[in-house]
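Q: Got a minute? One more chain.
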Amino acid sequence: MGHPEGTDHETVWCLDAESGKVHWSLTYPCPLLDHLHKGGPGATPTIDGNSVYVNSREGEVRRIDAATGNVDWVVDLGELLEIPLPEWGFTCSVIVRGEELILEAGRVIGLNKETGELKWKTEAHMPGYGTPEVFEFEGKPYLAALNNEGVSLVDLEKKEEISFYEWESPYDTNSTTPLWHDGQLFVSTGYNIGCGLLNFDGQELTLDWQNKNMRNHMNSCVLKDGWLYGFDGNSHNRRTVTLKCVNWNTGELSWTERDLGCGALVATQEHLVILSDEGELVLADLDPQSFKERGRLKVLDEQCWTMPVLCNGYVYCRGAEGSLACVDLDTARAAE
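A: Always. Here it is, folded:
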């Protein structure tokens, strides 16, 4: 998804994964919404069988035929829920669960994926800018959503909010996804609020620990073998942002690394795949004891806040002005 320069439209592209050739594109009206950043879409397309689901910056959810780019239906979240456009728009990616689509837009909602019909909704909060986490606990399905008032815990069988933990940040900027592991949720936000681990017993959320060692502004951490890896700090002051490794159980800091700005990362079994906010792709060992860089390659010449995507041995990197680069992971490993 992108926003062609000089237009008031968003575009969804279907590209050949190996060549970048455009198979089809779909364009629709949508403002840039470039308040304090480059603007453009903030959600990721979701593929389910022969359908693609997208959520525009204005909150128009579309079901698109993956083969042709034809639109099956459109639902406007603002009209559906009778809410104004959030300051930074709607940025929740669509979650597919069975025959339902789930989104957070202040309320957590369920839509019929075939028709777009609203099936259920939870109580209202101020919309956040992340995507919820779906998980199972003791054989039952739940969802955790970080809105701009706190963490909403939803029982997906009852279709209702069963617990809420207040977690606010300045300027209403809660933008990350809660991370679930073994009966606990990790939450992190920027503007010096920090992070915390919440316990869940099937009924309510309670605090285990809280500190300021990991203050994610936009991009969430990754969890591997009991260690959290992520960016601590805010995008407007990139020189103070550091990549950190923090212990899941205690919140204790293990190591820090500078000079990557407010970037984003994913993990393989052995490596961190990092995209700096200035377009450098960095490969590092997945090591909780120290940061060990294995390769670095300049791939884009623009601001980069989008998480890199790893698929079939390739890394796809997107810039804030719409550029897309594909790098063979072996090339990144070999880069000096």
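A: The domain at 1-98 is CATH 2.40.10.480 (Thrombin, subunit H).
Q: Perfect, thanks.
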